[in-house]
Write a structure and sequence with these properties.
Helix content: 25-40%
Bound molecules: adenosine-5'-diphosphate
Low-confidence stretches: none
Structural class: alpha/beta
Order of helices and strands: EEEHEEEHHHEHEHEEH
Shape: globular
Largest sheet: 6 strands, mixed
Strand content: 25-35%
Number of helices: 7
Distance between the termini: 37 Å
Amino acid sequence: MARILFNHVYKRYGKYKEVAVKDFNLEVEDQEFLVFVGPSGCGKSTTLRMLAGLEDISEGEIYIGDTIVNNYPPKDRDISMVFQNYALYPNMSVYENIAFGLRLRKQPKHEIDLAVKRAARVLEIENYLDRKPRELSGGQRQRVALGRAIVRTPQAFLMDEPLSNLDARLRVQMRSEIISLHRKIGVTMIYVTHDQVEAMTMGDRVVVMNRGVIQQVDTPEQVYNKP
Ligand code: ADP
Ligand code: ADP
């Protein structure tokens, strides 16, 4: 587990060097649940992707702990990410989907087995391990995607609009499941959304972004209950 620090981070895309993220400065505390909120196109995904190593940083530094990770490939950053379109392998069982990342890392079989079953228990999908993704509901599939991310305990856990493809009822249910997941595994979490209700109800702190810059960083109460 570690503190994450963004130090004067910029992202410019393409040959016209359009600025997507501008002078981004932020310290994320160990085990904090942080929400990035703002309109579409304001730079939320770009920021997460730079932290995960999926996008180059144009300027500035990102620290995980005391290490500058700018030049580290994703696999050396020890970060798990869950996307909006949770891509599960359709021909693999739930068990195999969750185990996949551990198999790639050539962990011993009995350790993989323990880790998969622990993740499945936390997410209450231990009775579905033999099923294929198509035999699950949307909410169950989303939990499998979360299971794949939490099967290892990463330094940080990033979620990019993970609930936006679910219907309203499931979204409400999964919101509280993600909050309780954060309590159970105690990992640093950054959650991206354009939904103000999610921003208001989920995080310890909210980072309000607009046009590539941070407008405000504060508790949900401070951000949303201005006098
Ligand atoms: P958000 O996640 O808040 O919707 P993004 O980080 O996806 O915002 O996008 C921020 C800005 O960067 C937008 O103007 C978007 O068009 C631009 N952008 C994102 N990805 C790319 C890319 N691969 N190439 C060029 N521009 C991009
Ligand atoms: P092999 O290909 O060597 O038969 P498997 O991946 O089928 O290996 O299974 C290895 C171990 O993983 C099993 O001993 C079992 O504990 C666990 N396992 C595999 N599939 C499931 C499942 N659907 N539910 C629970 N445990 C499973």
